[in-house]
Amino acid sequence: MVKGDYTVDQVISKAQTLIEALPYIKKFQGKTIVVKYGGSAMLDENLKYNVIEDVALLKLVGLKPVIVHGGGKEISKWVEKIGKEPEFINGLRVTDGETMEIAEMVLSKVNKSLVSMMQKVGLKAVGISGKDGGLFTVKKRLPGGKDIGYVGEITKVDTEVIDALVDQDFIPVIAPIGVSEEYEDYNINADDAACAVATALKAEKLVFLTDIEGVFIDPTDKSTLISEMDIHEAKDIIEKGVVGGGMLPKLNNCITAMENGVSRVHILDGRLKHCLLLEFFTQKGIGTAILKEPLF
Ligand SMILES: Nc1ncnc2c1ncn2[C@@H]1O[C@H](COP(=O)(O)OP(=O)(O)O)[C@@H](O)[C@H]1O
Ligand SMILES: CC(=O)N[C@@H](CCC(=O)OP(=O)(O)O)C(=O)O
């Protein structure tokens, strides 16, 4: 035994893990990374705390994380509490005036709880929505020509507020709410918001924390996980009809982001403890990576 309950081998193995992280720390130092933290991966407070600890480590080794969060499940819970049935069209919440109010309230609560956790681990964080500093300008989104209420499509991202926060060493935590040219509030799909932010910042990496291990050829067969693919392969599996549910708009969004300046995208299981560290700092990585070119 060396210290506490560890054997010498265990201590050496821990050191090796740290050494393994070195090239990745070097590669990503000073780089902007956008993390989309989906509501379906916020299972409980402990898990949220793990994610925040990972973000803390990323920040402390010199990366520049920007968080865009969701909260879809929590919004649905509160919509049900007032006796309404949550309704989605093409993965987008049908948002009437009342639902808009609930969405904004719930997303603000999620936002501030993430900020509090960040402060708890010693990080400087500021929670904002797309309304702050004119971050997101939107227009009404009309999927298939249908009016589904206050659902916004981002038409402009003004990164000034993010740049100012990052310059002052704060981690921006962003809720997916935007404002139209007419100053009306809109609900934005959080994946769309994350892609728009990552694209505007020309992020080195965009990471989605979701509720599945990655993209599967067949989601019912765990051996079919795709650990790496390029944009063409991603388009190919979409065309073949392999991808459905919420993964389809997510993947389409990833492709658009990569075609517009984001270098790489990762889709990870946010329910896995320390998933961000495993992805960023280990050779094998986890989840599905969509790459333009190999890392080394
Ligand atoms: N081929 C596929 N690979 C992975 N997930 C898939 C696939 N086809 C459909 N899905 C579904 O997509 C879901 C993830 O998208 P979504 O529910 O929108 O996540 P989030 O709420 O984190 O944004 C998975 O839980 C899964 O049910
Ligand atoms: C228009 C629209 O659908 N907005 C989403 C915003 C939250 C979100 O996207 O949260 P997740 O990432 O947890 O799903 C909603 O109201 O659910």
CATH superfamily: Acetylglutamate kinase-like
Structural class: alpha/beta
Summed over residues and divided by their number, the pLDDT gives a mean of: 93
Which ligands, by name, code or SMILES, are bound?
adenosine-5'-diphosphate, N-acetyl-L-glutamyl 5-phosphate
Q: List the domain count as a whole number.
A: 1
CATH T-level fold name: Carbamate kinase
Family: Belongs to the acetylglutamate kinase family. ArgB subfamily.
Pathway: Amino-acid biosynthesis; L-arginine biosynthesis; N(2)-acetyl-L-ornithine from L-glutamate: step 2/4
Function: Catalyzes the ATP-dependent phosphorylation of N-acetyl-L-glutamate.
Domain Aspartate/glutamate/uridylate kinase: 31-269
Q: Can you walk me through this structure?
A:
With 296 residues, the chain is of the alpha/beta class. The chain has one domain: Carbamate kinase. The protein is built from 9 helices and 16 strands. The strands form 4 sheets. Strands 5-8-2-1-11-15-16-14 form an 8-stranded mixed sheet, sandwiched between helices. Strands 7-6-9-10 form a 4-stranded mixed sheet. Strand 12 and strand 13 form a beta hairpin. Helix 3 packs across helix 4 and helix 6 runs parallel beside helix 8. The structure holds adenosine-5'-diphosphate and N-acetyl-L-glutamyl 5-phosphate. Adenosine-5'-diphosphate (ADP) binds next to strand 12 and helix 8. It is an enzyme of class 2 (transferase). Pathway: Amino-acid biosynthesis; L-arginine biosynthesis; N(2)-acetyl-L-ornithine from L-glutamate: step 2/4.
